[in-house]
Design goal:
Helix content is 97%, strand content 0%. It contains 1 helix and no strands.
């Protein structure tokens, strides 16, 4: 069998090997952690950039759609205003025609009233002349 000295030497070699392995593993773990942290940071930066880009595109698209909608509404309002303006003008013309008809009818009634008075006056005169002759 092995002597105590040999066993101690083997134990020390095992201990040294375990420390080297531990050191190597810790170094690799630190290296891997550093790489992963770097990759996570890069990914975060890329994602932040893409999110900002998407927000910008979305904002631009919303602005464009708002401008198109505004333009459409203004065009529709102008078209409606033109249509309603034409309708109002038509109503005004008809109102003017009715007013002129009303004036003519009123004048006609006034003339008819005057004519009836004249006929009544002439009838009275004719009755007076007939009474004088008879």
């Amino acid at each position: 069998m092995l002597e105590q000295k040999d066993l101690e030497a083997i134990a020390q070699l095992i201990e040294e090997r375990a420390q080297k392995t531990e050191t190597l593993l810790l170094g690799r773990i630190d290296e891997t952690e550093t790489k992963l942290t770097g990759r996570i940071d890069e990914t975060e930066i890329k994602l932040t950039g893409r999110i900002d880009e998407t927000e910008t595109k979305l904002s631009d698209r919303i602005e464009q759609r708002a401008q198109q909608t505004e333009s459409f509404l203004l065009d529709e309002l102008a078209r409606t205003q033109d249509y309603l303006g034409a309708q109002i003008e038509s109503v005004r013309k008809k109102q003017e025609e009715m007013y002129q008809f009303y004036r003519l009818d009123r004048l006609d009634n006034d003339n008819l009233t005057l004519l009836l008075r004249l006929v009544e006056s002439m009838q009275k005169r004719l009755d007076e002349i007939e009474n004088k002759i008879a």
